[in-house]
Design a protein that fits this description.
single chain, mainly alpha, 11 helices
């Protein structure tokens, strides 16, 4: 997090609203020197101030903190497309590795989770692969399916996850969940 960049952005937002440092400080029940410290990049606002600042300036907390949501979505799509192309070329294990790396970067990406689950489900068995390895794949699939079903709001991703869960859950003894 670049304190100076965030500070200058807060100053820009404050001046666009036509507020003085004193007025902003009063609104937040702080001292004007606290606002000055932010704008000079010496310190960051306390996390408890983020919702108030976001509401006042009519931006998301992501924007305040300099998190580029559009760039994140674009990078996730690039990872997805690379894995898709790799899988379509018959290199399913490489696609799985691409998706796992992508999830290390973007652990909250339901899109990458759902694709990884599908790839794990459809992957050809490796030579010498035993029940221990298969159980590890099932646990990983189960973990991602549970996360998708608990938190994803995208209808397509959820539908795909439900379909996969209907096949996987009985295999691992979760019959009631499958129903």
């Amino acid at each position: 997090m670049d304190q100076k960049r965030i500070g200058s952005f807060l100053r820009e937002l404050r001046t666009e609203k036509g507020l003085t440092q004193e007025q902003l400080a009063e609104y937040l029940n702080l001292s004007a020197s606290a606002v000055s410290q932010w704008e000079c990049g010496r310190v960051l606002p306390d996390i408890s101030q983020l919702p108030l600042l976001a509401n006042l300036f009519e931006v998301s907390a992501d924007v305040l903190l300099g998190i580029d949501v559009d760039s994140k979505a674009k990078k996730i799509d690039e990872i997805y497309q690379t894995a898709l192309k790799t899988s379509q070329e018959g290199r399913r294990y490489e696609a799985i590795d691409i998706l796992r790396d992508g999830l290390r970067q973007y652990p909250d990406s339901f899109r990458l989770m759902e694709f990884l689950v599908a790839e794990l489900r459809c992957r050809p068995p490796k030579d010498g692969e035993g029940e221990k390895e298969l159980a590890a794949y099932r646990r990983q699939m189960e973990t991602y399916l549970d996360r998708i079903l608990a938190g994803c709001t995208d209808d397509t991703i959820r539908a795909n996850a439900v379909r996969t869960a209907c096949f996987l859950y009985p295999e691992i003894g979760r019959y009631d969940d499958a129903v």
